[in-house]
Amino acid sequence: MSSFPRISLRPEVTDYLKNVxxxxxxxxxxxxxxxxxxxxxxLTCLSHPPSYTCVxxxxxxxxxxxxxxxxxxxxxKQQMCTSSEKxxxxxxxxxxxxxxxxxxxxxxxxxxxxxxxxxxxxxxCGSAVLRGANVFVPGILASPKFMKAGDxxxxxxxxxxxxxxxxxxxxxxxxxxxxxxxxxxxxxxxxTDVAAKGVGVRMxxxxxxxxxxxxxxxxxxxxxxLPSVVVGHVLGPLPGERILDMCAAPGxxxxxxxxxxxxxxxxxxxxxxxxxxxxxxQNAKMLQLNSxxxxxxxxxxxxxxxxxxxxxxxxxxxxxxxxxxxxAPCSGLGQRPSMSCTWSLKELCSYQPLQRKLFHxxxxxxxxxxxxxxxxxxxxxAENEEQVAWALExxxxxxxxxxxxxxxxxxxxxxxxxxxxxxxxxxxxPELTWDQTGAAAPLPYRADxxxxxxxxxxxxxx
Length: 462
What we know:
Helix 2 crosses helix 3 and helix 7 packs across helix 8. This protein is globular. The longest helix has 19 residues, at about 65-80. It has three domains: about 50-105, no CATH class; about 120-205, Roll (Archaeosine Trna-guanine Transglycosylase, Chain: A, domain 4); about 225-460, Vaccinia Virus protein VP39 (Rossmann fold, 3-Layer(aba) Sandwich). The chain is built from 14 helices and 18 strands. Helices cover about 30% and strands about 20% of the residues. By secondary structure, it is an alpha/beta fold. The protein has helices at about 10-20, 25-30, 30-45, 65-80, 125-130, 185-190, 225-235, 250-260, 275-285, 345-350, 350-365, 385-395, 420-425, 445-450; strands at about 50-55, 95, 100-105, 120, 135, 140, 150-160, 175-180, 200-205, 220-225, 240-245, 265-270, 290-295, 320-325, 365-375, 400, 425-430, 455-460. Strands 11, 12, 13, 14, 15, 16, 17 and 18 form an eight-stranded mixed sheet that branches. Strands 5-9-8-7-4-6 form a six-stranded mixed sheet, covered by helices on one side.
């Protein structure tokens, strides 16, 4: 199944992850051979995209079937412009258990022949290409010396971040992502005082073929990873409630919460990075959601000591919200495709203390009888199950709750949690079924298993 290198990690990070996935509890349960096999599958599947594209439909604006039909029509128009075939087929299926999700299969890896003319892009750009994007000019690091618009080129991703911008060739560690047509001369990319923008290479033979959603039904079809959609449903927002999203950028989950509430109530979105605030507001406006209120604020300081404050923004008095989503900053090691991660072990382990500070604030801001959902897009025990064990010990008022829908696997062994507690957690673990989710499997089956790595825990405050 693998057609390019496994995810590139620093040796110290690989060793750390191996110790996580081969911890004593796991070894006692499944044995060394199976534990080792799961770890190796994880390293492989992380560099590949999931075998489908997940779209969250804006069912607060239109029925799912209407959005499905409109999306099919738009994507057929798009493909007819780029395909020489007379008949263009677009398969779009509703998810059987999640009422606002549409699934589109991804074709790949495909047999694409590498060319002698090569363009090198950054790892982040290469990952976007594997999910259906074209190459935008800022992502280009190197190109042939005399490249002109119209030239057909092979596109490679720089896996270790070592390619010098403006180079004419690169022989370092890289991954092939497909072939495309240059839309701009080399001089227009590197030899200009004004930074060029727009598409630099239009992909015509990508290694993974999936639809481009650039400008396609932006208010009705929102690209979002399946586990991220599940989070909103697990939180279970109800019309009229006041809900807090503590780390909200770029706003996908914020807007989903507001949509599930039918835009009735208040969704407070906090984000400490100023230049990310406008993106949240734009998403809410595009999706016609008026219940979202966005503030630039550090959520670790979101609890006010003044229980009688009159201003509406942060910090807030204790017990101000019926539900709190803590989609915590994390190491992001579950993201797919991710062909490279250059972080040190120190950087990787820096998130647990921050997550605990945020957790303290979340528990204080939650009303008695309220729901707290904690989630990450990483695969480590320290940021997931260990945080749950710590929270249950630190906050006696919290109890784990069942999740609906629960389409991922249960929690991972290794944090000392009981079997009953692990069953209440939801860990999306693509490595568990990586060899069993081929193209022959039904799309919904693949969609539930071939996801990004993700973790969800749901608590009730007694």
